[in-house]
Amino acid sequence: MVKQEIMYWQYLWKTQYILLLLPLFFMACSIMAAQYNADLSINLLLFVTFPVLIFPMIATLYQIGSLHHKELLLTYPLNVVLFGWIRPVLLSLIYSLCFTASLMPIKNYANEELVGAYTAAVLYMNLASFILILFKNIGMGIALPLAFLFYGMFTTGSGISSFYLMQWSRPSPDTTLEDCIITQGFTAIILSLAAVYCLKSRNKYHWNI
């Protein structure tokens, strides 16, 4: 089991290293940019780095969202807990932690704001994982989470209340950061478990999109 998992991550790195590295690359660029222009650094984190956090989820789930592999995976036996829960959740926790850590040298965020950023990143990544598994389509797995994210950004969370992903940075008067942390944390858990159920029932829930 351990040997197979090591082989999987080696294969994933060889085939999808660009998607895995891109968020880390922009985090590093943001940290370096902070030495010259703090506003540029923050904008780079908010408008570039945060959106591309879904790329590692695409990398680990690309097979189920690929037109070339989707039909095979409908009948292929899978360890749904490992494939649909452990790997995506582990990636979301690690990359969200890296994103939160990249905020610290750029601006003096309060602890609650850092927790809010971490929770929002985890929810955003698990939302992408759930949509990709539900529709078995990479395009949907990218477009819908991005649309939700940018809608919240450009309306300051209008109409989405505690699901607003940028409350920790650009607060909305309609909700509180504490409510967002609690709501988004529970929602991330629910979406991760729902993704496992959809993957287990992938023959039943199958859309040709």
TrEMBL record:
<protein>
    <recommendedName>
        <fullName>ABC-2 family transporter protein</fullName>
    </recommendedName>
</protein>
<feature type="transmembrane region" description="Helical">
    <location>
        <begin position="115"/>
        <end position="135"/>
    </location>
</feature>
<feature type="transmembrane region" description="Helical">
    <location>
        <begin position="42"/>
        <end position="62"/>
    </location>
</feature>
<feature type="transmembrane region" description="Helical">
    <location>
        <begin position="181"/>
        <end position="199"/>
    </location>
</feature>
<feature type="transmembrane region" description="Helical">
    <location>
        <begin position="142"/>
        <end position="166"/>
    </location>
</feature>
<keyword id="KW-1133">Transmembrane helix</keyword>
<keyword id="KW-0472">Membrane</keyword>
<feature type="transmembrane region" description="Helical">
    <location>
        <begin position="17"/>
        <end position="36"/>
    </location>
</feature>
<feature type="transmembrane region" description="Helical">
    <location>
        <begin position="74"/>
        <end position="95"/>
    </location>
</feature>
<keyword id="KW-0812">Transmembrane</keyword>
